[in-house]
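Q: what does this look like with magnesium ion bound?
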Amino acid sequence: MMKALKISDLHVKTRDGKNILKGVSLTVKPGEIHAIMGPNGSGKSTLAQSVMGHPFFKVTKGKIVLDSKDVTRLSPDKRAKLGLFLAYQNPIEVDGVNFASFMRLATKNLLKEKLTPKEFRNRLEDTANKLKFKDDIFKRNLNEGFSGGEKKRSEIMQLAMLKPKYAFLDEPDSGLDVDGLRHISEVLNSVKEDMGVILITHYQRILKYINPDFVHVLVDGRIVESGDSSLMKQIDEQGFGRYESK
Ligand SMILES: Nc1ncnc2c1ncn2[C@@H]1O[C@H](COP(=O)(O)OP(=O)(O)OP(=O)(O)O)[C@@H](O)[C@H]1O
Ligand SMILES: [Mg+2]
């Protein structure tokens, strides 16, 4: 069995018929970090959502294979159970559920290992400490009244609790101050182990803490260039202008 998340020639359109992804191929192996950069509207979030199985996006061609299993037509829930995870660019607000019970539900539903309440509590507290969350976070309603930075940290906290096989992080660095960026990076580095990570970002400042093995540039629904982290620095200096009119 080949261990990898293999996206092949993925074509995706929205439910209302707009073509967004026009043949994306990407193979992410356990332990690798792939950064995806690209101008606004180029399809980065769509790629993440499509791989997770968001019903708004329709795969018209190509496939998504997770450790040799074709998941292209599976429900989002089944994909999550197989080890796919997405931390959203704009986390949704959920009313009436506090953070601790949400995490308890998610881990119960998605984790193969059965955590006792005590083990669960320990893991939760340990991760919260690393992320410098105060205790009252557990009692607060999910995302309600969270600051932008707290939302981002709570997403990384979910990742640290769930330890998926492959994780999309959609702009985990947006809206974080320097300390916040360092904290989420530390947590990511410490839980990563053999996780395959696809990190969508606009800024190379995250490179200070996280070292991607590959950098891909997505323009108008296609990967137009791939390279190592030096590509990120180039883009930071030159922008995406050189990919236009191709
Ligand atoms: N729910 C939606 N309804 C209609 N169009 C959509 C929807 N989601 C995305 N699109 C369109 O798909 C294209 C790609 O959007 P996407 O969010 O994937 O871009 P992105 O690369 O993540 O951009 P950004 O850097 O701004 O986050 C855009 O033209 C966008 O308007
Ligand atoms: Mg986006």
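The first helix runs from residue 44 to 52. The chain has one domain: 5-243.
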